[in-house]
Amino acid sequence: MERRLDPDRASRANRASGGFRAAALASVLVAALGLAGCAGSISEQPLITSNAPAKGLPPMPPVTPPNTQRSAEHVKLIGAYGGVYSNPKVETEVAQIVGRLVEASDQPNRSFRVTILNSPAVNAFALPSGDLYVTRGLIVLANDESELAAVIAHEIAHVTADHARQRQRQAQAAALAKRVSNVVVDPGVREDTRETAETSLATFSQQQEFEADEIGVKTLARAGFDPFAAARFLTSMARFAALPSINAATQTKAGFLSSHPSTPARVEKARRVARQFGAPGIGNSASNSYLRSLNGTLYGDDPREGYVRGREFAHIELGIAFEVPDGYVLKNTSAAVLATDGEHTAIRFDAVAVPDNTSLADYLRSGWVKGLVADSIRTDMVGGLEAAMASALVEGWSFRIGVIRGPERVYRFIFASSKPASAYEAAFRRTMASFRLLTPEQRAEMRPLRIRIVAVRPNETVQTLAARMVGVDEELKVPLFEALNDLGPDRQLASGELVKIISD
């Protein structure tokens, strides 16, 4: 369900097309080689926005109807990031933060529109049109409203400082310089010109980040937020990004820190700008109210995309599940489920519509498999379901393809290996054999993971609270709990303090 961010009410648009979104693969084996996934398509109704102010807060700036260019970019982005996340409490919290920031910004009369993306990735970005995007993964990582406001203020600064247009001009100049150098015969001159242009562009981008940080911190302070939250959350995001959490397993796009690196110089500059307004502890963080707004927020995989739990993938709506062998790491995306052993073998699992009157053997021969070894096709049964398997060879890579006819669609396993061996064949057959239809009882027992806000009880420790989390590998519980709550190794919890845990 899509909701417009509005302080009093969020009006609804059509939900992105649900279910396991499988993209048609014109060259499936090439896609498997790169562990690539195609973004699913979505449908969307026009956005509706109300500008009614929340009690005691400045009104949201006026929002103009989306133009064609904005709508196209908007649809593309939300398709790439799992659709739009609907949660009235979170929407209200974000809308109030944005309203305060816009009022305090360098362009308080400018129109901004905010979308919460249904992605566990920690990411935020802005378009020149004033469209701001923040993922639910970033929202749940923040521990107070000032930390989330710091990210949004940074993105608003990119828009008000006109960074996108400036960068486009710089990129055009760099491209022109490289093109002009092509007339020179000396390859050394061409290489020097290329390196100079690329270095200039990288330096320009870094300068924009520093400028957006400075503008953002000043906006934070003017809006009454904690200006030190920017440096604090940059450090927190870097720490979380280094953690091999279940969130990282679902991340398909570059995160906020990929394009906004948390360098020591950047953190220190953010602190230095914040000191212009006072010592740490100034500004309103509203930690408890912010944390309460997160209670029940989806964490990790969306139910419409299925769940990854260790080596198992399961999908409630489709009623299917399978497991990969030991040593393989699963990664869930909106277009396919991917896995790799980290060395030589990659796996892709997706679903397609195949007419009932087309046999699976004929489907394998229909041309979508490059390098198919024609006499390798074999039919079989998997869990009482019709199945077929085949092999393919492409540019030194060995492929094993398995298809299973389930209710309403055909499920495909594609294994690719640069060094096939007996273990590769065994892994393929073991994964195929694990495919099963879930019973109604099994589907009813499966629940998505959510953020739960709990008060620390007397004598509770980091270890006992982390032990209460579900859906997390045992060895990750303590470090993930510490990262979610921004706790250092020597941090003592106080009785009654609110903290985040992961539960179902």
TrEMBL record:
Q: Kindly indicate whether the keyword Metal-binding belongs to this entry.
A: yes
Q: Spell out the GO cellular component terms annotated for this protein, sorted alphabetically and separated by semicolons.
A: membrane
According to its UniProt entry, one GO biological process term is: proteolysis involved in protein catabolic process
Name all Peptidase M48 domain ranges: 89-272
Query: What Pfam families would the database entry show?
Result: Peptidase_M48 (PF01435)
Does the keyword field hold Hydrolase?
yes
Kindly state which keywords UniProt assigns to this record, in alphabetical order.
Answer: Hydrolase, Metal-binding, Metalloprotease, Protease, Zinc
Q: Which cofactors, if any, are listed as required? A: Zn(2+)
Q: Where is the signal peptide?
A: none
Q: A GO molecular-function term, please?
A: metalloendopeptidase activity
Spell out the protein name for this chain. Answer: M48 family metalloprotease
Q: Please name the source species.
A: Acuticoccus mangrovi
